[in-house]
């Protein structure tokens, strides 16, 4: 599933291609109807046609396409969605759910194998993401913020890192990576971590997100950037889906377990409870 670095890579790809462009036509294909959350598919098509994209922002895993009528088209890719810029004539991808034609003869395609992606068209961006806390790359996500969120909690630290109210944009890949960098066992009761270790974990979250962003994200499965290319970071991860392979720090075999119901990868030697 695309996480913060993947969504930010798409955002950066699309800014020069989309900002200032007008939408001439939108078609949500049969089978893609669940995309449209705030409107019916036909209403969504009609509302977006004729609009101009003025700005593309991001919050956590949400893409925020701000339109010339003051509303925001909020796109979430969920499990397997992708938003790809291409030519008008490019043939439809097997899992194309919608296409958006632009006034320069190019088009955007929304491809989504699992069909969990969502579009909201809203006046207030918060309405489309009511549970999102501070974006993990924003100043609001500070060491102090993280300390306060973890304080006194008995839930596993990994579960809290995945909570979008704590750190919007962090998902399973980067939670595992950050915990390895900070040498914290993913099942540690969050409230048992001292301030110094939480600060280290905070720095590790930023480190793994920036590293991946530098590699244009990770393409473990379906993730594609805004131009249809793959990210490069999946070959550079430390633990995620590396179970059975040696830890780069100590050589111990990386193991896979479950924490809070999520597949979790860690080094049993570097990351002790
Ligand atoms: Zn190790």
Could you give a short description of this structure?
By secondary structure, the protein is α+β, with helices and mostly antiparallel strands. The protein is 26% helix and 22% strand.
Structure in words:
With 273 residues, the chain is an alpha+beta fold. The chain folds into two domains: 4-128, MutM-like, N-terminal (N-terminal domain of MutM-like DNA repair proteins), CATH 3.20.190; 143-266, Helicase, Ruva Protein, domain 3. Helices cover 26% and strands 22% of the residues. It is built from seven helices and ten strands. It has helices at residues 4-18, 41-48, 125-128, 143-150, 157-162, 172-182, 195-214, and strands spanning 23-28, 53-59, 62-67, 72-76, 81-87, 96-102, 106-112, 118-122, 255-259, 262-266. The strands form three sheets. The chain has a four-stranded antiparallel sheet with strand order 1-6-7-5. Strands 2-3-4-8 form a four-stranded antiparallel sheet. A two-stranded antiparallel sheet has the order 9-10. A hairpin with a 3-residue loop joins strand 6 (96-102) and strand 7 (106-112). The radius of gyration is 20 Å and the shape is elongated. The two termini are 28 Å apart. The model has no long low-confidence stretch (mean pLDDT 97). Zinc ion is lined by residues 247, 249-250, 252, 267, 269-270.
List the strand order in the largest sheet.
Answer: 1-6-7-5
Termini Cα gap: 28 Å
Helix share, percent: 25-40%
Gyration radius over CA: 20 Å
Helical stretch tally: 7
The dominant shape is elongated
At the fourth CATH level, what is the homologous superfamily of the largest domain?
MutM-like, N-terminal
Main sheet makeup: 4 strands, antiparallel
Bound molecules: zinc ion
The residue ranges in which pLDDT falls below 50 over 5 or more consecutive positions are: none
